[in-house]
Amino acid sequence: MQLYLDSAKLDEIKKLSSLGLIHGVTTNPSLIKIAAESMPDKPDLESYIKELQKAFYGPLSVEVISTDRQSMYREAMLIKEKFGMHNNNVVVKIPICTAKEMDDKNWDSGLEIIKSLSLHNIPVNTTLVLSPSQALLAANAGAKYVSPFAGRLDDYLVKAYFPGTKRSKSDYFPREGMTASNSKDVGTAIQRVIHGLPNYVNDDGTVSGVHLVGRIVTVLKNSNLDCKVLAASLRNPRQVVEMAEVGADIATVDYNTIVAMAMHQVSCDGIRRFAQDTIEEYRKLFTASSQQP
Ligand code: G3P
Predict the structure, then answer these.
(1) Which of 39, 232, 275, 276 is the most buried (most CB within 10 A)?
(2) Choosing from 9, 80, 93, 228, which is the catalytic residue?
(3) Per-residue pLDDT at 203 exceeds 80
(4) Could you tell me if the CB of 6 is within 6 A of ligand 1?
(5) Cα–Cα distance between 60 and 105 in angstroms, integer?
(6) Can you tell me whether residue 149 is helix, strand or coil?
(7) Sequence-separated contacts (24+) of 187-193 with Cβ below 8 Å
(8) Residue 110: C-alpha distances to residues 89, 123, 124 (Å)
(9) Atom 4 in ligand 1: which residue has the minimum CA distance?
(10) What is the pLDDT of residues 98-156, one digit of tens each?
(11) Distance, CA 281 to ligand 1 centroid (Å)?
(12) Which amino acid residue places its CA nearest to atom 8 of ligand 1?
């Protein structure tokens, strides 16, 4: 499974690209906002995004901001025009469903734009995918990538079925969903029994973000559709590894989670111990060379 960086911060992209860890970058309006807020002056985003493109090899996803067909199409073409010529690595990010309410007539705008852009050979990353059925539609419409939002589905399931549960953003959520047997939160399990909630929390038959990604992998593979599964909204190393276990093609991960992936208490303890155990004679072996890596 390839790793992408989910960030619009130039320093993070440069750092992880120099380590060879990332094969692409995903952005969205929220990530652009975070990056812009960390800058001393208001940025010229056109040149800033071009700078991002130069900082790594691989696709860069840039998202449209409108929800109606005409504006989305115009924005997608502008993204292609401004950044496509530069490095030819730009991918247009389109929300699967632009309807703000369940009965919004705009339900098909995202799909229509995916189809139009694909016909023009403009690669599309379909974002905000929360169900296998949405992924199937996007892939049929011609999307090159689908981005299931695993963490946000976990948030949704906890909120819908276990209101009041205390949980921080990076907390692990079991891939089997929350059942009495695997829930670490005994209070929650008891609450579930008291309120007679179903054994498995259930959304479209999906019980967790990892489960969602695994189902999409199977559905697209069985359908023989040429569309990559780009697992997104990942918040901890365990979730990232589980994405590889269920067969995601790519996981887009934020900088702090990538740092956390490198760390383990026993590795750190081991380094300290090796340093303490290093005898003088062994140290001498390394004093002659002054070569830098
Ligand atoms: O790539 C999608 C991601 O940026 C959303 O992450 O943690 O806000 O759900 P999150």
Answers:
(1) 232
(2) 93
(3) no
(4) yes
(5) 31
(6) strand
(7) 188/162, 191/162, 191/164, 192/161, 192/162
(8) 21, 14, 11
(9) 233
(10) 888 888 888 999 999 999 999 999 999 999 999 999 999 999 999 999 999 999 999 98
(11) 51
(12) 233
| CB 28 near ligand 1, within 6 Å | yes
Ligand 1, atom 10, lies closest to the CA of 233
**206 CB within 6 A, ligand 1:** no
Query: Cβ of 293: how many Cβ atoms within 10 Å?
Result: 2
- Ligand 1: atom nearest CA of 152 is 9
Amino acid at 215: R
With a 6 Å cutoff on the Cβ, whether 151 touches ligand 1 is yes
Task: Tell me how many degrees the CA angle 258-260-266 measures, rounded to the nearest 5.
Answer: 135
209-238 confidence digits (pLDDT tens): 999 999 999 999 999 999 999 999 999 999
Residue 93 bears catalytic tag: yes
DSSP state of 108: G
Query: Which ligand 1 atom is the nearest neighbour of the CA of 26?
Result: 1
Say if CB 200 and CB 211 are below 8 A apart.
no
Helices (H), the chain: 10-18, 29-37, 45-54, 69-79, 85-87, 109-119, 132-141, 150-161, 186-194, 209-223, 237-245, 255-262, 265-277, 280-284
Q: Which atom of ligand 1 has the smallest separation from the CA of 155?
A: 9
| Residue 233 Cα to ligand 1 middle (Å) | 4
